[in-house]
TrEMBL record:
Record-annotated Ribonucleotide reductase large subunit C-terminal domain positions: 110-642
UniProt cofactor(s): adenosylcob(III)alamin
Keyword Oxidoreductase: yes
Name of the protein in its database record: Vitamin B12-dependent ribonucleotide reductase
Function: Catalyzes the reduction of ribonucleotides to deoxyribonucleotides. May function to provide a pool of deoxyribonucleotide precursors for DNA repair during oxygen limitation and/or for immediate growth after restoration of oxygen.
Keywords noted in UniProt: Cobalamin, Cobalt, Disulfide bond, DNA synthesis, Nucleotide-binding, Oxidoreductase
Family: Belongs to the ribonucleoside diphosphate reductase class-2 family.
TM region positions: none
UniProt EC number: 1.17.4.1
Length: 850
């Protein structure tokens, strides 16, 4: 395990680090807070050991340079630092940035993992093994993907007490819940669940996330093959079967391909899921799948879809900042420095290979930790086997994930409009040059360091990606056949979220989201000089201020526009029209041209591309379907569509005159008389160190009533074991008036009431529960009920109870619902929404669950 260096023995307060980072990022509050909260080196007590990103980059440079010393012609620490400092050229992403040289976390440097069992594994044992492996990886900071096509379909015969299988959907919920339970330094785990379109339960899989509150901890994607797409085109039936591979299925059925296709399109239009993976394209283009019989058969992808992987393989990510290779940006003399770009692409691939060695060290530390744990060997066996398998794949295949960021800013700086044929042509050339440089670097490293262990030129000679490399650079291909290459697969384009925040550029391959947007800052009531632009429903005052995208601001400065002037709306519109960002935002670009561009870039990316097609709210389902079909024909490996408003909003457009109300599903009228029997969800929580339980009574899947109590194992509301098997929840009426003393009835007919538990139960809790129930039954929106709970003046013990009840109710809040009073703990933004039961900041993406 790493030890603290002399430099790292100095500690800083949160305030000191924030002030230094704010200066480093030239006043960018959001970037400063993201760096301090997510990437500055800190121990478990929150003590900081880095003052600003320079310290972090020195930490990373030192470790990579240490690995370089193992090989011929090593890069120096200074050379590496010059490449990564200021987030200018090469940016290790996420886990590498956090974990390299970090002595406080026993965690992996890999961003992405895929897991899965070989052979038949649809037993409970196989499924539980995957569940445990998923959790073990997430606690080490990894995002995980796995495929569910191995699980037998609903209704299949099984040799246990159930007699028939429950199918895929219940296990989706299980894996999702496991994800939500894992803490990762303030963020939750990330999971991708996929299934083959050939699986008989594919339609249930596609519909699973539409049920509110279900499968909220996972992204879902459908593996669609060419046969299905052709069936849709030709309007002919499609055969689903189990197992999904092979010519001797134990079960098969004919399905209407067009109906299933329309279901996929409708759900994606409605909720941005499922994503689509064009599976035959992925397998056909995959170099690792040339070694499928040696354990490299691709089975699923990471949570964002940009890394298709075989079981137990992993990948680390690094981005090259394309904007930094534009000389004289936003001028008539703007040009792209191809020579410097090629040089740095070669070094980026080399640094990625070094990071694999650092990852192997991390895995050895994890294995040492497991060996030292005091638990029985039987308990530790799955975790130990998991990391041994991951180590084998990392060492044997040495997979890397070199990508890019700032594609949108690069094009704008060159005077090219994103989404035009000219802009797309330039981007395609950039990615072609990147592929050739990275593969040249991998071949040269094979000469010095050795090829990846199972390299075999004959296996790859017919691969379409390899044939394109051969045609573009014959010498590279022949050198590869002679010396091999260092890495089994090299390239990807990932979403770059916080990476682009700190590099102050557009994200990944995407265009600018908005060149100008609006944020709100709460006004201090004592500040008599402050400008008040907006007063909210509780009387708080807010100042609205314009925020310029960083490179748009650079364009303004270079072209003589005052960035401090208080522009009117008309002046801003005119300013944007003059800029290269005009008609080139996420919502402006031509959808079909973006798909065509993605398909052409994909030809030079051996893994995949994470990209979202943004569409306006009023776009038709028919157009979404056409877009998916075009993506398949263009050679894309996957595609995700986001229709504006189908999930929570992001930033406030500068010309919004009025915030539109969040659209929610229409709620059926509630009964005027309390139902005699209520279906209930059960949520457990702690209240002042005691175990408590909340029952949320549901009508039409919407909370109608809530009641709570202690959760010991003795009697009454305190969760006797029979209650876990289901309870009949009844009201008790006396003298014609509704009473709130619910009865529970066990299998022996024993009944108990709230009054019967008064010796254990603080009646004040019950009074508040009655108030909340009354509010729910009158149809008040859930978010308002949560707000009501938050406004109650409660003592400390009851306040803990209140938080538990609010957490239980939040899972029913519709995605996109705005939050009235809260602030983001990461960036202090008030632009918060509920997303899948979690508070999500629409400015920085930070998420706080429960």
């Amino acid at each position: 395990m790493e030890k603290l260096t002399a430099q790292q023995s100095v500690t800083y307060t949160q305030e000191e680090a924030y002030a230094a980072a704010l200066q480093y990022f030239k006043g960018d509050d959001l970037a400063a807070r993201v760096w301090v909260n997510k990437y500055a080196l800190k121990d478990s007590s929150g003590v900081l050991y880095e003052l600003d990103p320079n310290d972090m980059h020195k930490r990373i440079s030192s470790e990579i340079a240490r690995i370089e010393q193992k090989y011929p012609n090593p890069l120096t620490e200074t050379e590496i630092f010059e490449l990564i400092k200021d987030f200018k050229y090469i940016i290790p992403q996420g886990s590498p940035m956090t974990g390299i040289g970090n002595p406080f976390q026993i965690a992996s440097l890999s961003n992405c993992f895929v897991i899965g069992n070989s052979g038949d594994s649809d037993s409970y044992g196989g499924i539980m093994k995957i569940d445990q492996e998923q959790v073990q990886l997430m606690k080490r900071r990894g995002g995980v993907g796995h495929d569910l096509s191995h699980i037998r379909p609903k209704g299949s015969a099984v040799k246990n007490s159930a007699l028939t299988s429950t199918g895929i959907v219940p296990f989706m919920e299980r894996f999702s819940n496991s994800t939500r339970e894992v803490a990762q330094d303030g963020r939750r785990g990330a999971l991708m669940l996929s299934v083959s379109i050939k699986h008989p339960d594919a339609e249930d899989f596609i519909d699973a996330k539409l049920e509110q509150g279900k499968v909220t901890g996972a992204n879902v994607s459908v593996r669609i093959n060419d046969e299905f797409m052709k069936s849709v085109e030709e309007g002919v039936p499609f055969i689903q079967q189990y197992p999904v591979k092979g010519n001797n299925p134990v079960f098969s059925k004919e399905t209407d391909a067009n109906s299933l296709w329309k279901k996929i399109v409708h759900n994606a239009w409605r909720s941005a899921e499922p994503g689509i993976l064009f599976w035959d394209t992925i397998i056909r283009e995959s170099l690792p799948d040339c070694y499928a019989d040696l354990g490299y058969e691709t089975v699923s992808t990471n949570p964002c879809g940009e890394i298709p992987l075989c079981p137990y393989d992993s990948c680390r990510l690094l981005a090259i900042n394309l904007y930094s290779y534009v000389e004289n940006p936003f001028t008539a003399k703007a040009s792209f420095n191809w020579e410097l770009f090629r040089k740095h692409a070669i070094l980026a691939q080399r640094m990625m290979d070094d990071i694999i060695d650092l990852e192997l060290e991390k895995i050895d530390t994890i294995l040492e930790k497991i060996a030292q744990d005091p638990e029985e060997e039987e308990i530790k066996r799955t975790e130990q086997s998991l990391w041994l398998n991951i180590r084998k794949k990392a060492e044997e295949g040495r997979r890397t994930g070199v990508g890019i960021t700032a594609e949108g800013d690069m094009l704008a700086a060159l005077g090219l409009r994103y989404g035009t044929k000219e802009g797309s042509a330039f981007s395609i050339e950039v990615h072609k040059k990147l592929a050739l440089a990275a593969y040249r670097s991998s071949v040269d490293m094979a000469k010095e360091r050795g090829a990846f262990a199972i390299y075999d030129a004959d296996r790859e000679k017919a691969n379409p990606f390899m044939l394109r490399l051969k045609e573009a650079d014959a010498q590279l291909y022949y050198d590869m056949t002679e010396y091999g290459r260092r890495n089994i697969a090299l390239l990807t384009i990932a979403p770059t979220g916080t990476t682009s925040l700190m590099s102050q550029t557009t994200s990944g391959v995407e265009p600018v989201f908005m060149p100008v947007y609006k944020r709100r800052r709460k006004v201090n009531p004592n500040d008599k000089e402050a400008r008040v632009d907006f007063v909210d429903e509780v009387g708080d005052s807010w100042e609205e201020y314009i925020v310029f995208h960083h490179k748009f601001k650079d364009w303004m400065t270079i072209n003589g526009h005052d960035t401090n002037y208080n522009y009117s709306q008309e002046e801003l519109n005119a300013l944007i029209e003059q800029s290269p960002y005009y008609k080139a935002t996420s919502n402006d670009v031509d959808y079909l041209e973006k798909v065509r561009m993605q398909g052409e870039i994909q030809k030079w990316v051996d893994h995949s591309i994470s990209v979202t097609i943004n569409m306006p709210n009023d776009v038709s389902e028919e157009l979404v379907g056409k877009l998916y079909m075009a993506a398949w024909k263009a050679g894309c490996k996957g595609v995700t569509v986001y229709r504006d408003g189908s999930r929570s909003g992001v930033l406030i457009a500068i010309d919004d005159k009025k915030k539109e109300e969040v659209q929610t599903e229409e709620v059926a009228s509630f009964p005027t008389i309390r139902p005699q029997v209520l279906e209930a969800d059960i949520v457990r929580f702690q209240n002042n160190k005691e175990k408590w339980i909340a029952f949320i009574g549901l009508v039409d899947e919407r909370p109608y009533e809530i009641f709570t109590g202690l959760a010991d194992d003795e009697d009454g509301i305190s969760i006797p074991r029979w209650l876990n098997r289901g309870a009949i929840i009844k009201n008790k009426e006396a003298d014609g008036a509704t009473r709130y003393d619910f009865q529970f009835k066990n299998q022996r007919g024993y009944k108990t009431t709230i009054e019967g538990l008064s010796h254990k139960f603080n009646p004040e809790y019950w009074n508040y529960a009655k108030l909340i129930s009354s509010t729910l039954r009158h149809g008040m929106p859930i978010e308002k009920v949560v707000e009501l709970i938050g406004s109650l003046q409660l003592d400390e013990a009851i306040n803990t109870w209140k938080n538990g009840v609010a957490r239980a109710l939040k899972r029913y809040i519709p995605d996109g619902t705005e939050v009235g009073k809260a602030k983001c703990s990461n960036c202090n933004s008030t632009n918060l929404h509920y997303q899948e039961g979690c508070l999500t900041c629409s400015d920085c993406g930070s998420s706080k669950c429960g």
